[in-house]
Every structure is written in C-alpha cells, then in structure tokens.
Amino acid sequence: MTRSDTIISKMEHVEESLKDTLYRVEVIERKLKTKLLNAKDREKLEGELEEVKKVLRRNEKELQSLRKENSKSFMITACLVFVCFLFYGIYLMIFKKI
C-alpha cells in the first residue's frame, strides 16, 4: 500500500482479503470432510488450513486497528468542528451584541 492510501481504502482492502480468506477456509474445511483423502493429502490440507487461519487472524487484528484509527480521526474532526462553532459563537457574542 502506498502512503497516500486513506484509512477507508485500507479497511476495504483488508475486508476484501478477509472475505477471500474466509472463503478459502470454507473450501479447505469442505475438502477435509470428504472421506476420499489419503493421509498425506489430509495433512497437507490441515497445514494449509492452519496457515490460512493465521492470515485470517492477522487480517482481523489489522482491521480492528484500522477501525480504531478511523474512530480517532473522526473524534478529532468532531472536536475541531465543535471548537470552530464555539469560537464563532463567542465572536457573535462579543462583536454582534447578541
């Protein structure tokens, strides 16, 4: 990702990755439920499933941190808007004699 990416675009990218990973987990679990697998293939799929689950956990943590960062930036914006209205109200009280 480039430095100019917004938090929202990063969140969308991670959510897409989560969807793909969840789909991959479902496919692997469905394959593991079949009785036609030999031991070698079953072990290979179980190893792959563990790796995919690690990626899934990492992406979930990243999405959680991005959401936290997004809420922080929203709170900063809300505070700035409040301060602007506060100064405008004080300005009106002093110079417009409300």
Automatic annotation (TrEMBL):
Location relative to the cell: Membrane
A Pfam cross-reference name: CCDC-167
Protein origin, superkingdom: Eukaryota
InterPro entries noted in UniProt: CC167 (IPR028194)
A cellular component term, taken from the record's GO annotations: membrane
Chief location of this protein within or outside the cell: membrane
Chain ranges passing through the membrane: 74-94
Membrane topology: Single-pass membrane protein
Chain coiled-coil ranges: 42-69
Entry keyword set: Coiled coil, Membrane, Transmembrane, Transmembrane helix
UniProt xrefs under PANTHER family: COILED-COIL DOMAIN-CONTAINING PROTEIN 167
Name of the protein described by the UniProt record: Coiled-coil domain-containing protein 167
Gene symbol of the encoding locus: LOC105424217
